[in-house]
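Supplementary notes for students who missed Thursday's class. We covered one full example, reproduced here. Read the sequence, then the structure, then the short commentary at the end.
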Amino acid sequence: HVQLVESGGGSVQAGGSLRLSCVASRNTFGTMGWFRQTPGNEREGVAAINIYSGAAAYADSVKGRFTISKDNAKTLYLQMNSLKPEDTAMYYCAATFRSLSVRWRPIRAGDYNYWGQGTQVTVS
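Structure (token representation):
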């Protein structure tokens, strides 16, 4: 049974920082990512990392502000700096056993099979 559990969301003022965490029930995924969604909109890819190579990719809207990383255990992180009100959303962790070439393809929700329940980030 695969489980992803996010934490670290909250409310912060513009310009502030948050670090999201995602604890996975196993450590054999090929690619993991972070997505976000606001009411009435589709889920948007924010960042992705190939676990084997360490290669990372980011949405243009977060480049230079967000950093995705994974420790040697089972936790995926998203460090979010210089937050803006438009970053307000529910943030989801996602994973797939496939090893995706993250730098050569868009971060698409359809590429991921496993999802967490989400953690809310509010920037005011």
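Commentary. The first strand starts at residue 4 and ends at 7. The chain has a mean pLDDT of 96. If anything here is unclear, bring it to office hours.
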